């Protein structure tokens, strides 16, 4: 008896340890970078900062809430995908952007503050605080009249060329100042012994606007023969060297032929498992029907167990399951009726509505990111009408018209785009969740480029 008591105590301690471990795992979050600071903003300017949230341990679905604490500057902040968004189940990394849009009438002074990042479990049954405690992004926004020219060069690239073709230099630059800037570059080509063979100046690389990141391209013609060469590229802004890279490139007689092998994705899921997964609803109904039939068989067997053989041989008794064969028929019939009942119940509530089909070419309202779309043909707009006679548009749980409708949008309702796929927009909904809207029901797009 004492041994059993000890075993139960150990089991209880183990369960408590696992529960506490699960609660601690919920707190495994981090954010990078850890600040939002810009000390040379000007009235009317913009500043964008991208953050990366990462987590480990428990990967359940959670709701992320962003709470700015910049006082009167709170209204300047625009969040993408929004102030609240979902960290999907299984995701380890999530990014969001904060764009500061300074009004033209803003006062020249410092606006210190911070941005708090909180996480609330989507499942109300999960208790406790995750990153709401202690996770704060420090901030300091300062307005000035001074013109600041600041450019960060993040990447320099040169590809191999075919003889007679121009050498193309690609420079990725991020404007960290508050005025438009135009850099220049000096190119030096050397042999394997570092002897200078050619020098070139690239002065028309283009303009990088305030708070913009872009790839600048410059090119020049070389008279060098076939071979491999060193190429030194130094980028300048107003005679100040920003970055110098030493690369290697080749001049070839003809472009190399790259053998392309198309690798088709093979579904390794067993056929039986895939079939069960695709038809899981019907599989559950069948299992329930089988269990119901087995229960009926057991109850009928118990009913006739203590009856005499003479009574079991009666025709009416046989019809009621006194024999194993009729008992099986009754059980199978009852199971079939259960399956039919479940199937019929799934059809309750299905309505057939007449829809009006119109041809329109439409786009999404309310997105703050730049969306570049190819020319599309005229789209079919499928509307519905609610009980008050108002036109409504369905928002689906997935990018599939057969999926569940999770929200009904009203005429002229505006959404913020989170993601775009072929034929669909993923949008933020008023309740903080996201859903999928078919491009065919979109009225207009408010395009705003986010750099």
Question: What this model shows, in words?
Answer:
Residues 1-27 form the signal peptide. With 451 residues, this protein is α+β, with helices and mostly antiparallel strands. The protein has four domains: 23-143, Sandwich (Immunoglobulin-like), CATH 2.60.40.10; 151-252, Immunoglobulins (Immunoglobulin-like, Sandwich), CATH 2.60.40; 271-346, no CATH class; 357-441, SH3 Domains (SH3 type barrels). It is 20% helix and 37% strand. It has helices at 2-25, 271-278, 280-304, 309-312, 315-319, 324-346, and strands at residues 29-32, 35-41, 46-55, 62-69, 77-80, 84-87, 93-101, 110-121, 136-143, 151-158, 161-162, 167-175, 184-190, 196-202, 213-220, 227-237, 240-252, 357-360, 379-382, 384-385, 391-396, 405-410, 416-421, 424-428, 434-438. The strands form seven sheets. A five-stranded mixed β-sheet has the order 2-9-8-4-6, with no helix packed on it. The protein has a five-stranded mixed β-sheet with strand order 11-17-16-13-14, with no helix packed on it. Strand 21 (391-396) and strand 22 (405-410) form a beta hairpin. Helix 3 packs antiparallel against helix 6. The protein is elongated and about 115 Å long. Mean pLDDT is 77; it is low at 11-27, 127-134, 351-382 and 447-451.
